[in-house]
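A note from the maintainers: we've had questions about how concatenated examples are separated. There is no special marker in the raw files; a new sequence line simply starts the next protein. For clarity in this README we add a label.
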Amino acid sequence: MTEIRVLVADDHQIVRDGLNALLGALDGIEVVGLAADGVDVLHLVEETAPDIVVMDIQMPRLDGLEATRRITARHAGVKVVMLTMNEDDETVLAAIRGGASGYLLKGSGADEVQHAIRAAAAGGMVFGATLATKVAAYFSGALRSEAPQPFPELTDRERQVLQLLAAGRSNDQIAGELYVSSKTVRNAVSGIYAKLHAAGRAEAIVKAREAGYGR
């Protein structure tokens, strides 16, 4: 079986070492290099000819988004899988436009990371579960559509939380699904109550379901 050659780019040594140990122990995957910043990763792509680059976004000298754009423009056979803490719409879309074949949040399980690598190597695209909806909307042309969105007064995070509230999730379950702290969820829930003029959780859920959330 041909091994998938992987280059890891992250400015935190503990992350590089962890991914090196994780991926190096998997059958069919070979880690061919570790880069500490965007400039290093460009050089190592030339030197090691990887199949996949696992790329952080926030790195010194050259960020992961620009490094991804340069790699995919110059090396058509090299696929990039983003592994980062950033989940805002603009960053996700910039990665897609830059040619990324996958986008995972740090905190993703080992199975999810290796699945993304294997899928990208096979020509597919993989995005973490919490990002799948916005990525699908982007490809359908709906993410920036003119159609009115329910609850425009809410932030993106509050809408995510409200969707899960309407689906019957507890605060702890929401925190786990969104990879955020329980405090972040509590703050979002409080903001939802205030902005929707809801007396409590039950009323907020009713309003959300009437708008089509939670289905």
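[label: protein 2]
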Amino acid sequence: MLHFIRTRHGEAAAAQALASAAIPQSLLVQPDARLTRQQYVALYRTVAATLDDEMLGLWSRPIRTGTLKYLMLSLLDAPTVLVALNRFVRFWNLLLDDYRLQISTKSNLVRLSLMERTPGTPVTVLGHELMMKLIHGITSWLLGRDISLHRVEFAFARPRHAEDYAFFYPGDVRFDAGMTGITFTYQDCAETFKREKHELWAFLKRAPEDWTFSAFHPGSVTAKTRDYLEQHIARPVSIQDLAQALHTSVRTLNRRFAEEGTHFQLVKDGLRRDIAVHRLANSNTGVAKLAYDLGFSDATGFCRAFKHWTGSSPLDYRKGARHEE
């Protein structure tokens, strides 16, 4: 998010953008550091305003302020989601020089693909992620519910933080694809919708929050697992406990975890890491108390796990997160 603001306006502007979102610069060099939802939204808005580019400089042509407004206005009177998606494609194809969007229907599925206009166009990972999230977020907003995806594919290698994708793309997520694309069921796309202008103004006022983050409960097993674990984080929950709570079998759970590219312990560790980094940066909770709250039998085990997760000890992480406050 900061790359182009650094390139075009220098390090001082990048530092100011971070400060406006209450993000310490030291977090940029903290492995596995996390931003809050509010920090992400604030940073996005600041970068977009500084660059006058609602897509953060990620495409060769700037997407000027006001683009999302006129895109959404063009969709409001569409009779179905499929018609709205066709308008979405035509709108973006007037703007993008690097890629063109293509929509296709086959075997009761509707796919929107991001196709390079010139062979060998470099893949900007965040640009591809945001375009797929924008498509999914707008479609979900039009229908007033979080649409499950048949599949989303990305034309880049599986990243280190791949398990996080389950929270943004509720469906089968794949990497190393020939091209980036998102696939819905035809049944969802054939639905009618009704959205009023006053609802659109509220959506635009909150942007990019509503199209980036789901306003509804994600259907992924990863999200359900984190929800359950968060309610019982202080006790040693096993996968058998989770299976019983979700009314399924351990075998089915493991299969669904595998489909989402993760496993039970990874999800559990990810939740404990996220809670730990947030509380270390935003509270004065002692390490021993935090270890207990996260279900560790002692502080030593927690410190060992935290260093494995982030590369830092809890105390060093806290110092790094706070030294610029």
